[in-house]
Amino acid sequence: TTLFRSKMTNNEIRKDFPILENQDIAYLDSGATTQKPMQVIEAVTNYYKQSNANPHRGAYDLSIEATRAYDESKEKVAKFINAKSPNEIIYTRNATESLNLIANSYGIQNVTKNDKILISIMEHHSNLVTWQNVCKKTGATLEYMYTNENYELSDEEINSKIVPGVKIVAVTQVSNVLGTINDVKKIAKRAHEVGAIIVVDAAQSAPHMKVDVQDLDADFLVFSGHKMLAPMGIGVLYGKEEILNKMEPFNLGGDMIEYVYEQETTYAEPPMKFEAGTQNVNGAVGLSAAIDYLENIGMENVEKIEAELLKYAYEELTKLDFIQIYGPTNLEKRAAVIAFNVKNVHPHDVSTILNNSGVCIRSGHHCAQPLHRKLKMESTCRASFYIYNTKQDIDRLINGLKEVQKIFSKYM
Ligand code: 7TS
Asked: How large a percentage of the chain has pLDDT more than 90?
């Protein structure tokens, strides 16, 4: 069956998603969160029907089974991103919490007032406000890499900003607004040359392309389960083992300790050291099933399906002369996300009218206010695609936009 499924088309994949069968919608907001296939929904339901208990605590079979499911999930994640060991995988609530853990447990503890932290202008607020806060608390300086005229980080920009004195480079692999794919491997190499560590925000990349932490030489890498078919509430933090071993925990309490005395505590080894409190086993089980689902399709096939959707959507949108599209024009360097504006119509009006015809897109600043301000975009509409989207979804978007044009024609 693997062979058969690996050839699956988006039209076949779509049938695995009950919500897309139950609702008459073109769901074009997978950048915000993805829908879930039956396989993930059933894995979570079965976990609660058959295996639920608090892991790491009971000597009884059910608790051992919950622990096994949790550990197996980490092994799958480690393989999915080619980490050396599941001990390098920490579960959090989402990419945001993973970034907060790094900022607090690594950033605040390792940065001083003469250091610089470097991010890019296209960062999501989660990878921006967190570092602002580290700088406020330590006196370090926050600097930015800016995009060129093609919405990309040029080599000159990378080389002139990543210089001695920079201690942390935190950058997104894929922009959630522009769709720009950043050359993280090159950025990591440069960061290491000047003695900095690299934090990779893979929230918009891990669901859509093969991510290999060893090939990238990432020191930290984060993503959210809910953007890759898994339930909400499970996030991943990858960290190199030697770095995690030296870090202090961010959250304290049960399950992250070794021995506790009245005045002193020794901590467990990573990853448990960073996972205080009862873990999200159902989320881990769902993430496991989501990775199985994606690997069954094959990440190369995922990329292929999305590239076709992007090409079709981009071409169709380009035909509409009342639309302005943002982001790289070279589609090879771009993920399946398109931010755009309808001339003289506010994005919120566009998305409201599209909603009337069942088209779900996002409008606003997409948690990237500095990017919008820098590029003088105000706010934008954004369509983002995933493996269950079809050309019909895109046709609905295009027809909806023509409807917007009709309604607003006297202002255009
Ligand atoms: N980093 C990037 C690049 C993102 O796109 C997002 C979420 C996050 C981090 C944070 O993820 P979370 O799961 O912790 O919330 N981006 C979006 C979006 O584009 N629309 O809604 C959420």
From this structure: 96
